[in-house]
């Protein structure tokens, strides 16, 4: 009996301590097995909806889009939680859904001992945004920001204009929440992603310019003058493309920063350009 128990404990220990390297980062074997479980479930799950068709087409070019997740290793098992709240129990690399699947934001089904996960882009992103709204109302701005970013990443996987627009809005909202949490670098990264998406659509060029203007002001307050100058120039270009007269204000801001950087000749030229136009 004691020999059998010892062998079981040894097997568990060997499973938990197997080394693994992904993208130059050591990760647990349970994290790898759960990622494989999600990936296989997405690939094998039938879905006749347009989202399913998109997933089938995109699978020819890339790996399935996986939701963010966290795996906590215990001695005899592991618990994996998807960002939208779905939980799974892992035992020696085999994963089982926990709780009532009807309450999960991702669709989870079980049949003959096998489980499959069907992730719908719209439903998953809406669940993430609803969670973000709850965190925001509770004053938990960092958690709200991360939930918005998760929603944006899910939406960004769909190349349609509508979903791309929604992804940009989610990045913008995430940036605002990061600012509330005083996580300024994360806020900057998020708003840059929103700007990049808005800049790809002619109808949202002015919105991208407005975000660049706001980013430039923030960078200027942080004394990152070169970055601020670059953002003002990008905003000016976008405003000019749409015929938005705010481009003249961007030129004036460029001139001000050039003066702060002791580039007086360039500052004078920019001021002159504003006066002439």
Task: Give the SSE layout.
Blueprint: H1 2-16, E1 21-22, E2 25-26, H2 29-44, H3 50-58, E3 69-73, E4 78-82, E5 87-91, E6 94-98, E7 107-111, E8 114-118, H4 121-137, H5 141-156, H6 161-180, H7 184-198, H8 205-221, H9 225-242, H10 247-260, H11 264-276
Antiparallel strand pairs: 1-2, 3-4, 4-5, 5-6, 7-8
Helix pairs in contact: 4-5, 5-6, 6-7, 7-8, 8-9, 9-10, 10-11
Categorize the overall geometry: elongated
Low-confidence stretches: 14-27, 46-63, 99-119
Main sheet, how many strands, which sense, barrel? 4 strands, antiparallel
In percent, how helical is the residue content?
A: 55-70%
Output the strand order for the largest sheet.
3-4-5-6
Tally of alpha and pi helices: 11
Compressed to H and E, one letter per element, the order equals HEEHHEEEEEEHHHHHHHH
**Counted beta strands:** 8
**Beta content:** 5-15%
Mean model confidence by pLDDT = 76
Distance N to C terminus = 91 Å
Q: Cα-atom Rg, whole angstroms?
A: 24 Å
Secondary-structure-based class equals: alpha+beta
């Amino acid at each position: 009996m004691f020999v059998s128990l010892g062998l079981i404990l040894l097997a568990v220990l060997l499973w938990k301590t197997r080394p693994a390297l992904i993208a130059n980062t050591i990760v647990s074997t349970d994290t790898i097995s759960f990622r494989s479980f999600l990936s296989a479930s997405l690939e094998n799950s039938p879905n006749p909806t347009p989202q399913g068709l998109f997933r089938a087409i995109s699978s020819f070019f890339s790996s399935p889009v996986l939701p963010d997740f966290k795996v906590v290793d215990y001695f005899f098992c592991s618990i994996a939680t998807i960002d939208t709240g779905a939980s799974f129990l892992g035992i020696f690399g085999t994963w089982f859904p926990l709780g009532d699947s009807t309450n999960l934001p991702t669709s989870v089904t079980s049949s003959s001992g096998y489980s499959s996960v069907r992730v719908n882009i719209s439903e998953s992103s809406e669940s993430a945004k609803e969670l973000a709204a709850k965190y925001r109302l509770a004053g938990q701005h960092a958690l709200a920001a991360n939930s918005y970013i998760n929603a944006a990443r899910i939406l960004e996987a769909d190349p349609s204009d509508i979903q791309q627009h929604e992804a940009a809005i989610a990045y913008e909202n995430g940036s605002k929440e990061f600012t509330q949490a005083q996580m300024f670098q994360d806020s900057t990264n998020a708003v840059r992603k929103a700007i990049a998406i808005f800049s790809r659509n002619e109808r949202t060029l002015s919105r991208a310019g407005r975000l660049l203007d706001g980013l430039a002001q923030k960078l200027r307050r942080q004394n990152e003058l070169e970055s601020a100058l670059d953002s003002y120039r990008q905003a000016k270009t976008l405003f000019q493309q749409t015929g938005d007269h705010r481009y003249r204000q961007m030129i004036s801001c460029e001139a001000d920063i050039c003066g702060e950087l002791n580039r007086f000749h360039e500052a004078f030229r920019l001021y002159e350009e504003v006066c002439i136009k």
